[in-house]
Please model this.
Amino acid sequence: MNRRSLLQLMGSAALSGASVAPFAPDAALAAAPAVGGQAPGYYRMHIGRFEVTALLDGTHPFQAAKLAVGARPGEIDGLLGQQDLKSPFEGMINAFLVNMGDRLILIDTGAGNLYGKDGGGLVGAIKAAGYAPDEIDDIFITHLHEDHAGGLMLDGKPVFAKAVVHVSKRDAEFWLDDGNMASVGDLLKPFFPAIQKVVAPYVAAGRFKPFDGDAQLLPGLTPMAAPGHTPGHTYYLLQDGDQSMLFWGDTVHMQPVQLPDPEIAIEYDWNVPLAVAARKNALSLAASKVWWVAGAHVSFPGIGHVRADGKAYRWIPANYTLNRK
Model:
């Protein structure tokens, strides 16, 4: 008996007052069990001849109002609410792969195991995007925090077999020297041993190369010092022809909050006034020059433009496309 006939029979029995047994759905009609989870995240586009692939390492929820610095009472929840969001705010952990034709480079590495289940997806995302960690020639770290350099190692082993790791000399000197631990609060103290551990294999192999100054690092890739979030926090500007993309690291942690109010900082900032000044400068530059922006903590893929709106800014995300060339 098919389902329609069974339902007709049940209706007739109900009208006649007859007793009807509870209906048990046919197994063939049952819904498939939910699988859950997400696919490894990547998103691809081009800046001139350079192929840029955004990679999702993970997402990390945090109490936005608790970690914010300089906000008015109720401001954080109010700004999140304007976008139907609330705490805990889901922060992204994005990294970016750039195929330059003759070199494959990675900007930041995610958190690896340092954020537990909230990170560690970078290798899967790289492979899903059609590459392998062993193919990467150079890694450029915006700053030596756990969620940007932690992915240099995974499950106790170095991830990148041949890559040379580049970071500003100022950040390297700060985080690799335990003598500086006394100058930061309790929130940042654990970063010292964590970072020293993940860079150690690269230092030992002679593949850890801090840089100083603002000279072009590779054709088309230029560092821009932006101290504040860390002593050596650095942007990387990728340019080809009339197209540009600014990889701005931790300029923004909460896009719905810090673009409307760039004065709001975060407890992870090493120097709040400098971090605020760096953010205002980055927003102004990106908006006035119409640069693409790639943000480590902006909702995946973290790529878009910023637009000035009085003293505030608006985020214009990249429109999804299957053909970005």
In short: Residues 78 and 86 are 9 Å apart (CA to CA). The chain has nine helices and 16 strands. The first strand starts at residue 42 and ends at 47. The first helix runs from residue 3 to 16.
